[in-house]
UniProtKB/TrEMBL annotation:
<dbReference type="GO" id="GO:0032259">
    <property type="term" value="P:methylation"/>
</dbReference>
<keyword id="KW-0808">Transferase</keyword>
<dbReference type="GO" id="GO:0008168">
    <property type="term" value="F:methyltransferase activity"/>
</dbReference>
<dbReference type="InterPro" id="IPR029063">
    <property type="entry name" value="SAM-dependent_MTases_sf"/>
</dbReference>
<dbReference type="InterPro" id="IPR041698">
    <property type="entry name" value="Methyltransf_25"/>
</dbReference>
<feature type="domain" description="Methyltransferase">
    <location>
        <begin position="67"/>
        <end position="161"/>
    </location>
</feature>
<dbReference type="Pfam" id="PF13649">
    <property type="entry name" value="Methyltransf_25"/>
</dbReference>
<keyword id="KW-0489">Methyltransferase</keyword>
<protein>
    <submittedName>
        <fullName>Class I SAM-dependent methyltransferase</fullName>
    </submittedName>
</protein>
Length: 237
């Protein structure tokens, strides 16, 4: 994807976010009756339950550096991060609108150990093997360059580090697939291609080996992977 295409995509996505920002958190959390109908009818899932299951993969007493990409508005993670007092957390998102709301939530809820940055998951501005954990909740369906995103996350994750999260997979619910194609892609929220659940599982295992756990929840793949330790060479022994 060239620079012009990236700028056009960013403008399109930014305009979409600006139009719906007032209702974004309500939509995700099901706080309104219409958002509960939307989540049940289109996706047949409880996003609050899904978020809890993903976040439970990271212990509250986690110590180390954690990258959350995309951090979004931090609507699901703020309470968790407030409990993770010994962690150093970096939240990165391509959307300046999302970062602005997350920053307000960070200040309101006094999450001192969370820093927020605007950036591209396909070109992460971090050194190799610097994070002990990478969290990605509902991000990959929005990433236009998914191969680069997977590779970059693998690059910045330490050997033995945990990569966990969830993302949309195609082929599990016809109505959801149709909604993605006719609405979410046209609005600029989702970007193809998408994996099936089997393809997603195969992809993760090809990168992380046998230490991969996956679970299918309607049209979502929930996952936890551990990056293999590097093999020690004779010169390192």
């Amino acid at each position: 994807m060239n620079i012009l295409d990236k700028k056009m995509m960013a403008n399109r996505q930014s305009n979409s976010y600006q139009r719906m920002m007032e209702h974004y958190d309500d939509l995700l959390t099901g706080r309104k009756w219409w958002s509960r109908i939307y989540m049940r009818f289109i996706w047949n899932e409880d996003t609050n339950l899904l978020a809890r299951k993903v976040l439970d993969l990271i212990p509250d007493d986690f110590r180390g550096r954690l990258l959350d990409v995309p951090v979004g508005t931090a609507i699901f993670t703020a309470e968790k991060y407030r409990r993770m007092k010994d962690a150093e957390i970096v939240g990165l998102d391509y959307s300046e609108e999302m970062i602005a709301i997350a920053a307000l939530r960070k200040e309101t809820e006094e999450i001192a150990n969370l820093s927020l940055e605007q950036g591209d998951v396909g070109e992460l501005p971090y050194a190799n093997e610097i994070f002990d954990c990478v969290l990605s909740m509902n991000g990959f369906q929005a990433f236009p360059e998914k191969e680069k995103a997977f590779a970059e996350i693998f690059r910045v994750l330490k050997p033995g580090g945990c990569f966990c999260g969830c993302f949309y997979v195609k082929g599990e619910r016809r109505l959801a697939d149709l909604f993605v194609k006719k609405v979410m892609e046209r609005k600029g929220f989702f970007h193809p291609p998408y994996d099936t659940f089997a393809e997603a599982e195969s992809r993760l295992r090809s990168m992380y080996g046998d230490d991969v756990l996956t679970e299918k929840m309607a049209s979502v793949c929930l996952f936890r992977c551990v990056k293999p330790q590097r093999e020690t060479t004779e010169n390192e022994q």
